[in-house]
Amino acid sequence: MLILPFRHIFSNKLGTMPSLRILERLTLVLGGVTLGYFAFYHNLKRKSALLPTIPETSPSLPVPYGYPGPINDPFKRQAYQTSFNRRLRHPDWVFEHLTEESLKKGPDVDRSKSYFKEDTNIPEMFRSKLRDYFKSGFDRGHLAPAADAKFSQEALNETFLLTNIAPQVGSGFNRDYWAFFEEFCRRLVTNEKFSDVYIFTGTAYLPKKEADGKFYVKYQLIGDPPNTAVPTHFYKIILAAKKDKNSPDGISYALDSFLMPNQRIPHDDSLEKYIVPLNAIERTTGLIFFKDLENKIVTPLCKTVKCIPIPPAKHVKESLREVEERKILPLPKE
């Protein structure tokens, strides 16, 4: 539609009032423009009637009746924090802060009083169940170890909630190499004298190249119905800190990240074999770890201490007892 300035219509060289001829011409022009506009609008309206109606929405408005979710439930316990994945029925990650004080055993703390328990804070339809693990072939693997939470009975009990548990291969992994790895973490405090050890422990699902040359992520589900996922890998990201007068902020930091397959691992494997770049775990999990460390000077942990898996004293005693028992067993008859 043609729009002319107000003063252009009502002024000319001869005075303040326009001549009749000019007004007639302007009337014809404006009339033609107006008729053309209404014809265009009518034609556009006919075409739009043939198209589906799109409701008017705005991305700034909330989703009617609520957003879907959540997929994760965060919990803060006495000895750890966890983010439980409702779809996979196990934690995505668990965080611990180990200190000399936190590793001390409290009075009357007794592991025999602790037992695995479903977490009723999770809605039942998304909950990991005890029966999922029954005869599954997998251990109920702690992400925050029970041995890290002996300072109180409640803290110890909380490590047995299934929101801290994921399916792990038992012999050769959960009961062996993984347990050695957990002991190594504790010794960073008790033996290596780091004042603070921060640990993220979590689950991962890595792709594997198949016969057709393509990569697939495949994993087992346990339970009836099969809901609880079995991770292909587990990781630990360890940040150890101690006072250091030579460091800019008076604290030195050491960090390494480890990624292990959920399978039997030889006892004599070096921990350094399982070191991966931190961003490799971040790409796999979609999570960013220790992002506020970017401006700190951090050295590799295994360049600071010897990264050797250490069997806990209890594990050594049990292994020796098993050897002695095998010695006294009668030989099978031929």
UniProtKB/TrEMBL annotation:
Q: Name one GO biological process term.
A: apoptotic DNA fragmentation
Which Pfam families does the UniProt record give? Answer: Endonuclease_NS
Name the residues that bind Mg(2+): N174
The record's top EC class is hydrolase
The active site of this protein is located at H142 (proton acceptor)
InterPro entries in the record: DNA/RNA_endonuclease_AS (IPR018524), DNA/RNA_non-sp_Endonuclease_sf (IPR044929), Endo_G_ENPP1-like_dom (IPR001604), ENPP1-3/EXOG-like_nuc-like (IPR020821), His-Me_finger_sf (IPR044925), Non-specific_endonuclease (IPR040255)
Domain ENPP1-3/EXOG-like endonuclease/phosphodiesterase, first and last residues per copy? 77-296
Per UniProt, the keywords (alphabetical) are:
Endonuclease, Hydrolase, Magnesium, Metal-binding, Nuclease
For this chain, the family text in UniProt reads:
Belongs to the DNA/RNA non-specific endonuclease family.
Q: Name one GO molecular function term.
A: single-stranded DNA endodeoxyribonuclease activity
Name under which the protein is recorded: Endonuclease
| EC number(s) recorded for this UniProt protein | 3.1.30.-
PROSITE patterns according to UniProt: NUCLEASE_NON_SPEC
Per the UniProt record, the source organism is Diversispora epigaea
Q: Required cofactors, per record?
A: Mg(2+)
Q: Which GO terms describe its cellular component?
A: mitochondrial inner membrane; nucleus
Q: What is the lineage of its organism?
A: Eukaryota, Fungi, Fungi incertae sedis, Mucoromycota, Glomeromycotina
